[in-house]
Specification:
two-stranded antiparallel sheet; homodimer; about 5% strand; globular
Chain lengths: ~170, ~170
């Protein structure tokens, strides 16, 4: 049977983003219980020169929507990076989930050899769809989802691997 | 053409592990330049109740070797968790890479429907090969590779996303 490009992309990004949204719920509950100003969470960082939580969530969303759009050969919707609070970041994830769900499997399937061009540090870098999905989009996506988790975990939010994996 | 189970597993785990090994080289160089006791690095954590760097690397290795072994239907080699220094952790990665490379594509291909049973919190949980690889092994693997990166990055090692992604 093999794995289709759709199976390896849209539903998997969606699953991880839903888990991230539930992790953000726990972060919000933690902030409320500890009387932390809700505006603080989005700015939390692991170290001063690393991107804060809000940007980690935004880039995870961008990676997911960029991947499915590029594989489907449709324009990537622009979502301005204005979110700061947890409810705003959850809305960003919801908007991303809506876009991911809007692409029918047939648009993404068969994109293994589709040319994908990324602008990286000012240079055009070409991949085929398979290499792009497995070697670029996946590690990049999980990098930002995990770092969002790590920022919250390092700041005392009670989350565990089970929240990250969810229901495979 | 679709994606084969081999394409989506062994070479991808190997690529990310090689990138992690190169990140550990930078960590070692950083420790030497800053005169940090080399025994310190393996014990670094993001927060007291989260696993340290050495365990993150060991679990990333375990996830990779467990995934390819389960999909191939062969015994998982046992690698005792004795590593603490960066050279020891790099050797653990090298041993994992050797095992991943030892499995021919034909053993892993066709494992989409193979039953995989994981012992999770004392319970047997059943997956098919496809669900296990995409929904469990991948997120778990990247979780630990990214957290290893985040621990080093949060401790001042000069690494960037380019080191994490490497050559897709």
């Amino acid at each position: 049977m093999k794995i289709s490009m759709y199976q390896a992309s849209a539903p998997r990004f969606a699953n991880a983003l839903r888990n991230l949204s539930a992790i953000l719920d726990k972060a919000q509950a933690h902030a409320e219980a500890k009387k932390i100003d809700p505006a603080v969470l989005g700015g939390l960082r692991l170290i001063a020169d690393m991107l804060p939580l809000a940007r980690q969530v935004q880039i995870a969303c961008d990676t997911a929507k960029g991947a499915v759009a590029r594989l489907a050969g449709v324009d990537i919707p622009q979502h301005p990076d204005t979110e700061q609070t947890i409810p705003e970041l959850k809305a960003r994830i919801a908007k991303t989930l809506d876009f991911v769900a809007s692409l029918p499997a047939a648009k993404i399937d068969g994109s293994e050899e589709r040319e994908v061009v990324l602008k990286l540090r000012g240079q055009d870098v070409k991949y085929n769809g398979l290499q792009y999905l497995l070697g670029h989009a996946w590690p990049n996506f999980y990098f930002h989802v995990t770092t969002a988790y790590d920022i919250l975990r390092a700041n005392g939010v009670e989350i565990g691997k089970r929240d990250f994996i969810g229901t495979p």
